[in-house]
Amino acid sequence: MSRKPLIVGSAVVLVAASALGIQSCAGRRHGALTLYGNVDIREVDMAFRQPGRILKLAFDEGNSVKAGDVMAELDAQPYRDALAGAEAEVLLARAEVDKLHRGNRPQEIAQAAEAVHQAEAVFQNADTDLRRQGSLADTGAASQRTLDAARSARDQAQAALASARKNLDLKKEGWRQEDVTEAGARLAAAEAARDQARTALADARLVAPADAVVISRTREAGSMVGNRDAVFTLSLRNPIYVRAYVGEKDLGRFTQGSRVSVRTDSSKRSYAGTVGFVSPRAEFTPKSVETTDLRTDLVYRLRIVVADADAGLAQGMPVTVQVETEDHGK
Question: Which of 85, 179, 277, 292 could cysteine-pair with 303, CB 3.0–4.6 Å?
């Protein structure tokens, strides 16, 4: 009788027992999910908001900068000149407003009042002469022509008196409200132009917006640049992100705030990360991402914030993201 069936049967039993033992062991421990992604460091193109000639540059490629560091300066003389002109226009406009608010000087009012007195005297004299010529005309001692001339002189003196009185009233009343409003508007426009000139002068200095590393310097001192020409490109050091992708079957394990660990191939250090964003839209796996599933599978993008990043994480570096999850089958 052959022993082969007995041997085969024993092997099947052993394999089944081993599989049962592995499943039991997996149910008792925590499972780990491994993802793959790349370091995603934000970059900033630094450009002046004003055109001009570069006077000096303080940093070069590879240098670290702090927030607020002056990285480059334009020749600011044209902007200083423009500011001086704008400030002079403000002084001129403010003087006009002050003059209108104060009204006429007492000397001007007194001068207008004296003109009224003179006009009254002239009118009184002309009116007296007219009455005298009328009396003479009644007796035939004065001609009609002389009487008409006296009447014309009296009328002219009366008109001059009325004009002098109106001028005195205007001097006392001061400027019209419309003139005051117009002068105030001119002052506001001059102040706005001055503020713009101040901003333009401040923009002649290129200031680092955050702690970063200079990865590109595209201009040199003496270069003419426009207001959109990049001078530096900065790599921001905080925060540093990792872009990773997860399949639909594991998507439920990730929520905003989930903690993960990040490792690179160039170091044994493990970085602490937090899921900051889970894309609600599915997409095909990017060609640059290696996953354990097929590249044509639909995945969801994760953005992981690395809180304790250092120079060991470089732009585009491939990383391994590991998520510790509890196996609910235990």
Answer: 277
- The span from the CA of 292 to the CA of 92, in Å, is 75
State pTM to two decimals.
0.60
CB 278 within 8 A of CB 35: no
Contacts of 134 (CB under 8 A, 6+ apart): 147, 150
> Which residues, other chains included, contact 39 with Cβ-Cβ below 8 Å and sequence gap of 6+?
240, 241, 242, 313, 314, 315, 316, 317, 319
| Residue 168 CA neighbour count, 13 Å, CB half | 16
Cis check for the bond before 318: say yes or no (omega within 30 of 0): no
In our burial notation (b when 16+ CB lie closer than 10 A, e otherwise), range 89-125 reads bbeebbebbeebeeebeeeebeebbebbeebeebbee
- SS3 of residue 246 by DSSP: strand
Q: Which has the closest alpha carbon to 40: 211, 229, 288?
A: 288
The helix (run of H) or strand (run of E) holding residue 282 is strand 270-284
CB–CB of 182/210 below 8 Å?
no
pLDDT in tens, 115-168: 888 888 888 888 887 788 777 777 777 777 887 788 888 889 889 988 888 877
Query: Which residue has 């002056």 as its token pair?
Result: 70
3-class DSSP assignment, residue 207? strand
Q: Which residue matches tokens 């001055």?
A: 194
